[in-house]
Amino acid sequence: MMEKKYLKWYQKIGYGSGDIAGNVVYALLTAFVMFYLTDTVGLSMGIIGTLIALSKVFDGVTDFFFGRMIDKTHTKMGKARPWMLWPYIGCSVALVACFAIPTSWGQTAQYAFFFIAYTLLNAVFFTANNIAYASLTALITKNTNERVQLGSIRFIFAFGTSMLIQYITIDAVNWFGGGAEGWRIVAIIYAIVGLIVNTISVFSVKELPDADKEMEKERKEEHTLTFFDSFKLLLKNKYYVIICITYIMTQLYASVIGMGIYYMKYILGNEGLFSDFALAINIPMVAMLLILPVIIQKMGGMYKLNVIGYIVATVGRLGVMVADYMGNIPLMLAFTAIATLGIAPLQGDLNALIASCSEHTTMKTGHRLDGMMYSCSSLGIKIGGALGTAICGWLLDAAGYIKNAAVQAPATIGMLQFLYLWAPAILCLIVTFLLSRLKVEKANKLLMEEKNI
């Protein structure tokens, strides 16, 4: 039986383009905020790491808060779209602030300025926008294949944007005069682009009407649940817990890969190589995402493809390690591309997996918690990404990192090698194990058979 189709091709493109807006924030922060703060502003890597970690205390609360608010929202625009639209204005302002630390201020004031801007960006504005954006996957279509297509399209835009930002940012900063002024101008340009694209994405789709009796019943049940009741329901879904941990691991991976700019500068001796490695990551990612929906259909689901993919990714990162110790940069690039081909399937179908987890909770409990369920995407991005950046900062600071040093100490070199070579392979192995336990598609089929759905 053919599933009903809900979306036109241009709506899929419009929705997916929203990840351009998300990644002018995320890619810029992940790849460059630490580098900007240490090597341009002159702040301590260890203190920055601590401030980023402290910021996560607020994030841990706001993810579930905004998820719950989306579940309780009912407007003419729908549940999620208002939360995607308006908070992005704050995202734009806060992003610029993170890259506009007043150079004339004392360091204490600079740390405080960064902490406030970073916390507002992540804990408030980006949280509301990102959870709403992710939730739309379940709210604009009920078709599983369309959800996979949406995931693939959005991550094509995500990694295309990430590739472009990683490739052009250093040159763009230098073109605008370098130093603090160059970073500020680049951040303003990215913020404006993000604001425009996010607005287009919001108005390119509409949420499904919920006027039928079944949805009205679910709406009434939603309002009988307290925040803590909803949270307990999430934790009872083991697949939700697995996806949360997986999301955090994948973002930790992105953070340690982001340390590549330090690795290129201080070990390979050419920070310009960061652009080449960005291409080796993002071009294979986009290529795989283009054909991912077809592969998933032929394989009959996401489970096997994701597990096999991360086995390939683990082997690929081990290959990067071997190639580095051989001193063979082209081989490092080749194995980087292989690892990315393995990672790509999960990146493309992760939103569809979260939708499956949400359906699992709905079928087992009768309560629909799409907003809170999709909070794991924002939670994973921020906790994984920010803690990854913080941990890298702590470790490099403890290893004696000195900004712009002609030669770093042996301990610093060793730590950079661990972060860029060993840590990604270890994280890929952990994700492989987690994915082997993520059998939510099979569990949902069994529930449907039991309920004769």
**Count of helical segments?**
19
How would you name the CATH homologous superfamily?
MFS general substrate transporter like domains
CA distance, first residue to last residue = 13 Å
Q: What's the overall average pLDDT, rounded?
A: 86
Label the overall shape: globular
CATH topology: Growth Hormone, Chain: A
Characterization of the model:
- The chain is mainly α.
- The protein has one domain (about 10-200, about 215-450): Up-down Bundle (Growth Hormone, Chain: A), CATH 1.20.1250.
- It is built from 19 helices and no strands.
- The radius of gyration is 21 Å and the shape is globular.
- The chain starts with 8 loop residues before the first helix and ends with a helix.
- Mean pLDDT is about 85; it is low at about 210-215.
Summarize this, please?
This protein is mainly α. The protein has 19 helices and no strands.
Which keywords apply here?
19 helices, mainly alpha, globular, 453 residues, Growth Hormone, Chain: A
Strand and helix map with partners:
Blueprint: H1 9-16, H2 18-41, H3 45-72, H4 81-85, H5 87-98, H6 107-139, H7 144-175, H8 179-202, H9 213-224, H10 227-236, H11 238-258, H12 260-266, H13 273-299, H14 303-326, H15 329-365, H16 370-373, H17 375-398, H18 410-436, H19 440-451
Helix pairs in contact: 1-7, 2-7, 2-8, 3-6, 3-17, 5-6, 5-8, 6-17, 7-8, 7-13, 7-15, 11-17, 11-18, 12-18, 13-15, 14-15, 14-18, 15-19, 17-18
